[in-house]
Amino acid sequence: MRESVLSNKEEYLNSLFANESENKKLSRQFAEELGLARISVSAPEAKLISLLVKLHGCRKFVEIGTLTGLSAQYIFESLPDGGELWTLEKDPAHGEKSAAVFANLDQSPKKIHLVMGDAREELEKLSALGPFDGVFIDGNKAAYMDYLLWAEKNVRRGGLILADNVFLSGSVWGDRSAQKFSDKQVRILQEVNQRLADPNLYEGVIVPTFEGLYVAIKK
Ligand code: SAH
Ligand code: MG
Q: Ligand 1: does its nearest atom lie under 6 Å from the Cβ of 24?
């Protein structure tokens, strides 16, 4: 959901951080082919996610919304040997591209599981494998509260909760000029942001990236 014209700031950040591996470029190329390049994480955002996963020492991680496997690669590279990433995707066309990208990764010391299906159903099944050290929420916006409530139950105490696009292009503070989101989506994102800001439940903050990245630790 990025603007097609990059600001000088974004250009500058990209000049420093967008020197990506061939396999990440392949994810971007696939997203482009699907006409969805704008919804992939930017390189600096992805680098921040990767760094947080590493700083937090996450071993078992869940991503909701794989698209073409770009953010998944950034998360995967920060997992230690023995680490595991479950990444959930509903769209078969996206899953096919992601599988091709993941096949190029060395998965002997650690593992990526591409889980196909509706995330809400698949998450319930995944619960049996928890608790997890962290989650990156980047799927269907109308389901963000369901994803968060799942994470509250299945991420360990002290675990990492990341959520992308929490500004919903400004609609959460009343800027509806983008006109892309339904009232329901806006209300859900406002409720999710409010819940993550509850100091009894989480310690966190929104990093003001272009789309807004919530970073929180579960209490
Ligand atoms: N994390 C990716 C971008 C994800 S875009 C990256 O930055 O590289 C959001 C993805 O969520 C899309 O691929 C979409 O098909 C998927 N999605 C949407 N609704 C879903 C659902 N109910 N269950 C699982 N995946 C879903
Ligand atoms: Mg996103």
A: no
The gap from C-alpha 166 to its chain's centroid, in whole angstroms, comes to 11
Location of structure tokens 């390049």: 37
Q: What's the rounded Cα separation, in Å, for the pair 132 and 103? A: 24
Which ligand is closest to the CA of 164, given by its number? 2
Q: What is the 3-state secondary structure (H, E, C) of 59-82?
A: CEEEEECCCCCHHHHHHHCCCCCC
Ligand 1 center from residue 91 Cα (angstroms): 8
Give me ligand 1 centre to Cα 81, in Å: 26
Q: Count of alpha carbons within 13 Å of 157, Cβ hemisphere only? A: 2
3-state secondary structure of 147: helix
Cβ atoms of 2 and 42 closer than 8 Å: yes
Q: Enter the tokens of residue 180.
A: 């892309």
**pTM assigned to the model:** 0.96
Domains of the chain: 2-218 (3.40.50.150)
Q: Which amino acid is at 193?
A: N
pLDDT at residue 5, as a whole number: 74
Decide: 6 and 42 in contact? Cβ < 8 Å: no
- Encode pLDDT of 2-49 as tens digits: 555 778 988 899 899 989 999 999 999 999 999 999 899 999 999 999
Question: Ligand 2 centroid vs 164 CA: distance in angstroms?
Answer: 5
